[in-house]
Design goal:
Structural class: alpha+beta
Shape: globular
Number of helices: 21
Largest sheet: 5 strands, antiparallel
Strand content: 5-15%
Strand order of the largest sheet: 7-3-5-4-9
Helix content: 40-55%
Amino acid sequence: MSTRRLTRRPPAAPAAVPVYDAAHRTRLLALDFDSKRAGPVQVAQDVAYAKAWLRACGALPVSDLNPANRGRHVLAAFAAGETHSRDEIEPVMRLLGSRLPTLDIGLMLNPRTGAITPPGSATRSGAVRELDGGVDEAAAALRQGAEPGLLARLREYLGVEPDHTTTEQTSTAPMKLSADLWEGVGSAARLRGHWCWRSQIPAPVEAFAVSGAMPADGRWPSRSEARASVLAACAKRGWSLDDVRARRDSSWHGLASAYAHYSRPDEALAADWERICARWITASSLVRSPEHRNISLTPPEGSYGSKSAPLHSDTHSRWLATAHSWVHQTWPGQQHRWTVLAVLDALAYAALVAGKTGRDGTPLVAVGVRALAGFAGLLSIGTVADVLADLRERPGSPILRIRRAVHRDADCYSLVTAYSGPELDQAVEPVPADRVQLRPVHDAWKVLGLHHRAVYQLIVDTGLTNVADVLAAAGVGRSTGYDTLAVLAQAGLITRARGTVSPGQITLDDIATAHGLREVRADYLARIQRQRAEWHAWLELRHQIPADHDCGAEPTVQLAPWDLDSGLDEAIWAAQLATGPPELSWPL
């Protein structure tokens, strides 16, 4: 292992690196310790504490020194594929800032211009930042990243900020908690089992609860944070307020003494519990966000066919109309465009149902390849994965991946504006809004062929009747268009009469029923639900990540980054469960 220090010749100006990417998300926790605040001795002490806390929470911190002013940086990469926004990071930064006097939290709270000079870079004074330890070791730590859920563990480790309201000021109204996260009522309410942490309560937290002893590492400035940390640890592990009270009255004498100075200790405990459950646990990054809610893969009755009622959203409709136009420009006259359009339609539908948007209102979608294949008319999983991989790397694409898939979390995409032109400086003009519909691709196109779908939808959804107008709007040639019209007419989906067309008596639902596609979809759901359960079981064994599989619910299908083959046979799957998938080497 290399032990040399980074001492290359300094450049003319500091080589600052942005902490956040273009989507205002970061995969790095960067801590800047300023010696002007309290001197180099305090910096050294704060850095020692910060690195110890990060290691205790599963991170691999890397630090360096500015030899000119003795300031320091501490860097810790999040888990592979895990990124966070400023809003998600701010609570942890404020907790750290309240405990570490020399920490400048402004760096991580500025997603637009926040930047940091890495080890080996020149400083403003002309010195060179010196890495603590070996280069190879530091590079490996940043490449490997922390265990998943670093921010949530730090919040539990440090304890929430103290609440200075008095017992008389606390509300006596019962807490209102999401039924998706909680079960039970009142003091018996507890986090549902599939959201609970499986790890033991950290030893320093339980030590405080038992004896009231404050740890020597300074993580809690006062007993207020300490007792809040105890309650948060209990809530995340599925305890109820009744459970905490029972433990307080039997063996947790330290927790009891932490509330002894209140005139009504039990009411103060209940108020703290309500505040933590309602405000901290629900906002934790480890509970499911709207982008991860269950999305049904079973077509609702009457949602397809000539009388379908698509969902509506101006934002999503405009994105989809622009994406359609971009696809026709990118693959003019090519059969491949119909597959790409099916995948983009599936993304738009999934994003609208999930209801997740970025800070600027851009739709976000985090759903697995298997689910997208279901929304795209039962396309093969490999085809959907190939399309997404192509779109991610294609200049001007209407999708931007802002988080890689990791463990149970799927790739997260931002549905951005598509651009074209030599310099990618021309926003694509959308197709007319009535030519796109926010709904899944019907399973019937698996039989009929996706290349006939555009012509049929124009006839059914827009009311166009002139054949020439329909073919021009669909972007297909005369010969190809007439072949499509013949197929649709033979299936009974349209009727033709002297240069005009109109919807037929047969619907897409009829086609699906005639070819047994509902049974095909049911088999598909059963297979991926079984694979999902096995995958979560493996995660539970290896990473202690709770499996949230519910045999009675339809799956939120998510895909491991290395598993894109729907035909994975049982022998290979069993081998993966026994030995685990191959290790990935994620780029920084």
